[in-house]
Amino acid sequence: MSVDQANVRRIARLARIAVRDEELPHLAQELNAMLAFVEELNAVDLGNAEPMTSVLPMQMKMRQDVVGDHAGPEIVTGNAPISEDHFFLVPKVIE
Amino acid sequence: MTQPVDLTLAQARDALHAGKISAVELTKAHLAAMEKASALNCYVATTPDQALAMAQRSDARFASKDAGPLEGIPLGIKDLYATKGVHTQACSHILDGFKPDYESTVTSHLWRDGAIMLGKLNMDEFAMGSSNETSYYGPVVSPWLPNGWTQDQARKALSGDKKGLLVPGGSSGGSAAAVAARLCLGATATDTGGSIRQPAAFTGTVGIKPTYGRCSRWGIVAFASSLDQAGPIARTVQDCAIMLRSMAGHDPRDATSFDAPVPDYEKSVGASIRGKKIGIPREYRIEGMPAEIDRLWNQGIDWLRAAGAEIVDISLPHTRTALPAYYIVAPAEASSNLARYDGVRYGLRVPGKDITDMYEQTRAKGFGKEVRRRIMIGTYVLSAGYYDAYYVRAQKIRTLIKRDFELAYANGVDAILTPATPSAAFGIGEKGSADPVEMYLNDVFTVTVNMAGLPGLAVPAGLSSGGLPLSLQLIGRPFDEETLFSIAEVIERSAGQIQLPKPWWE
Question: Would you tell me which residues 422-441 of chain B have a C-beta closer than 8 angstroms to some C-beta of chain A?
Fold first, then answer.
């Protein structure tokens, strides 16, 4: 399988990364190099192998559903590029 | 006379306990060495005031006889670890200015045990790279001199375009270079596909990626969560054992963290390996492997045999598939983990005409080329219509890779010996600019271990024809790091302590 420039534009959109038109040919070439590299996996006999979900057998732990340590709003918004009154500010999303 | 920075971690610990040196003296010696080595670009942030304050507290604890296992030991911390109130940016532009209000579990274990933080270490952006060249803060220069170079020549290149100087490997390039250049007694690192073992191998240092789950991932910037593991890089096997004991341990905040007591790994260093069964996987004898790597491997086999180990040929038939499968699994997980960098909650923000444009502009500017490429390939392999063909297939292959190892271990193999890297360190700017896959091949021997969740250790075993360090890798059974430390010490002793480069950069 390989990608063309239209595919690259769609992937970039899904990944929320802006790309300029002049970048598309080079990006397509790089992604195709990676896809060509993984191509050989198609020849592997998978037998009855299940897809891996956990690399080591481990029992998922349960815990009480209680409030633990938590940072206050000051701290949570403390690293935001723009915030006001403990809210994150973003461009308008609802008309 | 031995300078304080030339001590191993174990020697420094003993000197501190014997009162031959104070934690403040030891810390000051490191801060001075760091200042003189700033051109190597190992540290992206230094914390001298914090280091001296921690050292004073250590000296007070020595005085009151309640010193911890790492009391007074100055360490460097990879920029991937959250350190409270201190630069934590995964060497990415997108985390510009980020200072967490929390401390990673692993670093908090180190401070609990008395260690001292010197600063944050350079790395490939989001740990994606094998040469430390993808860092937003620029490449790290290896302290090793290129073949045939004079010190003057290297100093000139260092103050110029750095061309021809060597990479320290990656992604934990700053960690490995700082340890090799004696800018800390040990460093934290992380390993997703080889990021501890490959840079350790390139710099003549020792690095261990413990079993998945041995160290908590809480507070470590996530790259590929099912593969990421924390571990130490240090100058000796013993030093790694000392550090890992403090770093490891269960953490209720990481659901994949392993709930079992942490052994005293140092006790395994120097233990006999008589009767241990060491597997030699034939699939690691890859096409085009340099003869000197093959020789090194055979030398390692001879050393272990001489120490009483039993050598057996084994087969790990899916070895070849590990690297391509990794380049599906790791980018897929990365594309998901890195979705959080959106210009809203932390780091860089580039304004846009609406919110989507703001996301897109922020991520285009904030992520470097390699990271953008991996997010995009990860997005593609997870997208509708391709998920089964790529991602599910890769996860099935991962099951097969793990099964190969399980079969070997079921047949009584205690550990597996392989080369650590397919070559010695290469030059800055030399690889991967035309084809990204060229760089990925660095991890061909290490990546299988992450795919199977096993412990892996790289230990220096000799020098290349160009005078550069070469290492062997040991792969162990799950949670049997102790056997790796015992075998690695045999290799270390047989090879003779590697002579680290003299400080030509000062």
Answer: 435-437, 440
